[in-house]
Amino acid sequence: MRVDPQHRLVADSLEAEWNSKLRALAETQQERERHRQQDRQALSDQQRAAILALAADFPRLWRDPNTPDRERKRMTRLLLEDVTLLRADTIVLQIRFKGGATRTLTVPIPLNAWQQRATSPEVVKEIDRLLEDNTDGQIAAILNEHGIRSGEGKRFSRTIVARIRRDYSLTSRYDRLRAAGMLTVREMAVVLGVTPDCVKIWNRHGLLHGHAYNDRNECLYEASGDNQPHKARGHKLSKRSVTKEVLSASAKEVQCEA
Length: 258
Fold this sequence. Notes:
The protein has helices at 8-40, 45-63, 69-79, 113-116, 121-130, 136-145, 158-167, 173-179, 185-192, 196-204, 243-246, and strands at residues 80-87, 90-97, 102-108, 210-212, 219-221. By secondary structure, the chain is mainly alpha-helical.
């Protein structure tokens, strides 16, 4: 209306543009009202059954290995409005669904990579118990025989058992035997007045009680006390009494030699 009457072409152009905008606004309002009316319409029994079937099939569809990840993302976007994560001693998930329902989940904090590969406390405890009577290699064989696996899912070996023993500060078999009063081969040789090789030979023939502390069959020895064996010339080892006989009352009359 403020256009100069001398410029009617400008006025006509502005009026046409204004009318076009009004028509677009009216059409948009009509379209919006039509959608509102459709949304208000009650679902038919067939539609309701289809929706319920979809809800029942959702877990199966989600777990189906043929469902690609992009489709799972779409399914998630259709269901969820937003998710809030709070991390402390545990992870708390506050989930809000499209329909307005909410749910709170609490899950443990995922383990680090090294924690996932760590040996379970039960296996560590079992290794500690087996060290009382077995070497590292023997323990590995026992664990494998019972189907027990390492934290990485591997079969046990002597080196794996030794690493676990060191990592968890378990008392070694050597230290356990020493704490029980066992003697080294040199100490036993001094006690018996023989050479270390003689101690080993007597141990192989059962004249001494030796306890292996590693997989090279290196032993620590029980002190024989007053009934310890000693050299006896002219008597073969094959004719010698075993340790139990040496420790018996009659063993005092047995003389033997390496």
